[in-house]
Specification:
By secondary structure, the protein is α+β, with helices and mostly antiparallel strands. The chain is built from ten helices and six strands; from the N terminus they run H-H-H-H-H-E-E-E-E-E-E-H-H-H-H-H. Strand 5 and strand 6 form a beta hairpin. 31% of the residues are buried.
């Protein structure tokens, strides 16, 4: 039998590149995203209801308007979402993988040559996106928290803008003693400035009746005396009507910052505040832990996804109740670890920065061990 050349089958050539994102990836990511956003929307509502029931009497005693209470919860949304992101990732991971396991979809993928690690890669990618959102909300939450606290305290009861009798050390090494600071009026009353002398320059002591903040000039001191102290026995004194102090660069709001909570300050503001307190000799361990948690909590999204993926495969027969149980138990455990972290780091039992990362390290190690034991 002779086969003609034109009758021979034409070989099929690959004309396109292999797809990086397969239909299976889109399916896994869509299932994760559906549960993730439902959880993300439901958790804040649950938190708000619990808070309202717990504090309703307090709001009534303060005679807060309903609009003020409602707006306070609106401003609380960014901070609540920031804290909820890891829990939402955990719920989405456990429920989605639990469903895939229960309906043997992971088994079918393995039979097709797709490893478990490749199967969960869309979930890991989504957890990185959640981490990015967490970092964004960590910067959006502080100004919203400040507005919320002002609304809940009431217009007349909110923390005063006047701060009394405090000392502050500047970057240049000067120590400022202030009788009164009014951040609204942007002025200080009865200000003393001390700069210790050295072998190269004399000491300086300035006493001023008041000081005003000028955005273009800085702090302008009014009516005072300038003492130049070359040594312990010599004092050259000069009177002045006005004197510009260009070494004090902190604004009135920054000098009042000790009255603000860490939750009201962004990462950069909290860093600057910590440096100022360190120069004054204050204990800043607790604040350093709070600052590092602004980074550690978003990173938790990735670690908790790896942990939840391995945890969800441990029981192929578990249903919705099982998923809820392990998710809630893990969330509570992680919150306990964070509180323990604050206590250990704040008391100086270990450096504050490593203490803030300790929950992530513990859960991360457990996740890697459990992932290594999963059949791929």
């Amino acid at each position: 039998m002779t086969v003609h050349p034109e009758a021979a089958p034409t070989p099929i050539k690959a004309t396109g590149r292999a797809r990086i994102i397969s239909p299976l990836d889109r399916y896994v990511a869509s299932e994760f995203a559906r549960i993730f956003f439902v959880t993300l929307a439901g958790f804040p509502v649950l938190v708000f209801v619990i808070d309202l029931v717990d504090n309703l009497r307090k709001y009534t005693d303060r005679k807060l308007a309903y609009k003020a209470v409602l707006m306070s919860y609106f401003y609380w949304i960014p901070d609540t979402l920031f804290m909820v992101f890891p829990a939402a990732v955990l719920f989405a991971t456990v429920f989605s993988i639990g469903t895939f396991t229960r309906y043997a979809e992971i088994t079918a993928a393995k039979a097709s040559g797709i490893s478990f690690y490749r199967f969960i890669s869309p979930i890991v990618l989504m957890s990185f996106l959640a981490m990015g959102l967490g970092l964004i909300f960590s910067e959006l939450a502080p100004p919203a928290n400040a507005k919320r606290l002002k609304l809940l305290a009431g217009e007349n009861e909110y923390r005063e803008t006047v701060r009394y009798n405090f000392a502050f050390a500047s970057d240049a090494g000067r120590v400022y003693r202030v009788f009164a600071l009014d951040s609204d009026k942007q002025r200080m009353d009865r200000l003393e400035i001390e700069e210790r002398g050295s072998l190269k320059r004399p000491g300086v002591l300035i006493a001023s009746d008041s000081a005003e903040w000028k955005p273009r000039q800085g702090w302008v001191l009014r009516r005072g005396q300038l003492h130049v102290l070359p040594n312990d026995s010599t004092d050259f004194a000069f009177g002045f009507d006005s004197l510009v102090d260009r070494q004090l660069k902190e604004t009135p709001d920054e000098l009042r910052a000790t009255q603000r909570e860490p939750s009201e300050m962004r990462y950069s503001e909290l860093t600057k505040f910590i440096h100022a307190l360190e120069r004054s000799g204050a204990d800043v361990n607790q604040l350093k832990v709070e600052r590092m948690l602004k980074l550690a909590i978003p990173v938790t999204c990735v670690i908790i996804a790896l942990f939840g993926a391995s945890l969800a495969t441990s029981s192929q027969r578990g249903g919705a109740a099982y998923g809820v149980a392990i998710s809630l138990a893990t969330t509570v455990l992680f919150l306990v670890l964070i509180q323990l972290t604050k206590a250990v780091g704040g008391k100086g039992l270990m450096p504050p920065e490593p203490a803030a990362w300790m929950p992530n390290v513990i859960v991360g190690v457990i996740a890697l061990v459990m992932l290594a034991r999963v059949r791929t």
